[in-house]
Write the structure tokens for this entry.
Amino acid sequence: MDPFKLERYFARYEFNVRYLLSSSDCDGFSLDYVLSKATNNELKLWNNLTLGYKDSTGDPLLREAIAKHYNSIKADEVFVLTPGEANYILMKLSLLSGDEIVCMKPAYQSLYQIAKDIGCYIKFWEPDINGSFNPDDLRSLVSQKTRMLIVNFPHNPTGYYPTKQELDTIISIASKYNTLLYSDEMYHKLVHDPAKLNDSLVDLYENTISLWGTAKSFGLAGLRIGWVVSHNQSLLQKMKLFRDYLSICNSAPAEILTMIALNNSEEFIEVNLNKIRSNKAIFAEFAGRHSNFIKDYSEPPAGSTAFVKLNLSEPSLDYAERLVQETGIMTVPSEMFEYGQSHIRVGFGRANMPEALQAWEAVLPK
Ligand SMILES: Cc1ncc(COP(=O)(O)O)c(C=O)c1O
């Protein structure tokens, strides 16, 4: 399998540089913080936890806590596993060599790479000349032949988020062919204006499998917990059988901590949203001051990142390499998304973003 470019780039720099200016996860909360939000009953579960194997579908109490975040999902329609496992298993079970799929691009690589390795033919849904995804473009991409439509809202890296009307268009295109919709919602609820928040696609279109997890919206990437929800019991059952060959079940402590976070979600998501909103305002000012260099930046409505076009005389990978060597600022160049050579991803979820921008400013042309 081709290396996962973004993850390999992080493996090189994430733990040995001064500033992470491109992370998509928000600062991790401490264990103390999570436990301080627990009710007495939840604390009892934590203190009496035994470290044996757990229910391979996910702890029943955790599945109930997850189901409450959807309008149409019951606890038995939830399957708890890591997001990477979910991607892998779903693609391996649903796709065959020669199948056609449609996926957004740029995108988190595993959303199309596994299908590519299976031998699928991939049609990419890309931003239009205005730099934004246009759902109408899906009309010429999705057809009877489409085995799976893969979307990711809020989108990594651009922060694109469909309006309710745009979402209706996407659903109507998928419904026309009853296409299986895989909705990666890892950044669900990180919507900067609460009035614009959409329901999960699993609540809006029957033939959907939605993915969410703790890494982004909750600032709990280290728990390594995610889940898929779907009304398709037969697909969920097949995924469970496959998972027996991988992790078998989840980490017991991580499941309890995830349950606490889900039962107190505001205490996590709101804190992250406030940080993102504040950093976004700071970055807008920074981009305005350096409009000769920051060629194209439009404020994202959702998520924790933006994809920013720079005015460069070299590939963005070379620029990113020079920047990290000279200043200790790690950015993610667009080459890591296999998407041209002129963008970098900017992440808004880190408290030290203002310091990182100051360090960047010091080496930018005046
Ligand atoms: C769109 C998207 N899906 C899935 C994942 C994987 O999430 P996790 O890191 O919790 O495995 C990521 C992580 O960056 C992501 O951006």
Q: What stands out?
A: The chain has a mean pLDDT of 97. The chain has twelve helices and 13 strands. The pocket of pyridoxal-5'-phosphate is lined by residues 24, 82-84, 108, 152, 156, 184, 186, 213, 215, 221, 226 (CB under 6 Å). Residues 102 and 126 are 10 Å apart (CA to CA).
